[in-house]
Model the fold of this input.
Amino acid sequence: MIECKNLFGGYALAKILQDVSLTFSDAQLTVIVGPNGCGKSTLLKLCSKQLPFAKGEVNVDRESLSALSRKQLSQKIALLPQSRPIPDITVGALVLHGRFPWLNYPRIYCLEDKQIAENAMKKMGIFSQRQQLLSHLSGGQRQKVYLAMLLAQDTKNILLDEPTTYLDIVHQLELLEFLKECKREGKTVVVVLHDLRMALENAEQVVVMKGGRVLVAGTAEEVEHSGAIEKAFGVEVLRREQVGFCLRKGFSNR
Done:
């Protein structure tokens, strides 16, 4: 569980987030949506201590974020950022990196670490590629490797920033199933997405942001009736029988 209380923060003097209070619960998929520059990525970075916050409070599993060391935090939260390097290492080596927060001096992987990493690769269907270089894989395959690394990190809370970028529909559906499986295991899953329909149809909690503030946080039905989607994006949300949520352009941002 991650709790944000009256959170303000951003980059240097730019306070992008303005008085954000949210709860991301265990065994729940939360999707954050909003126009570019509204603070979605900043929120994830503040929750994972990648950026300092200017004011407010963040609690992770009922412990204050400010009281946690980097190692302790990495044992509680795994973050998959939007932009990721492509290091010249093998798939197996990168997945093993997920075990780093759990290593003690002299930081040598033990048999248990290797077994956890192996199981993560098998779960993501990439075990047969463990000896391949990451740079030789497709974008969808690399995404699976990073997700396996998150699994190997074995945290209760998972944050992902636009993980569907550059993925085809097959890999998007595989990612969605991965997120649902994490939720079924009791994990707190928070995802930034641009796909409004995917958010509304799959998340237990949808957070709509604009201008560094939360317009609404609730179920798809609550978001649908709040008018927040129209305010943030200038599109109308429609629900059709046997089709689900549809979006229709025609509203101006207000």
Q: What stands out?
A: The chain has a mean pLDDT of 90. Residues 157 and 243 are 32 Å apart (CA to CA).
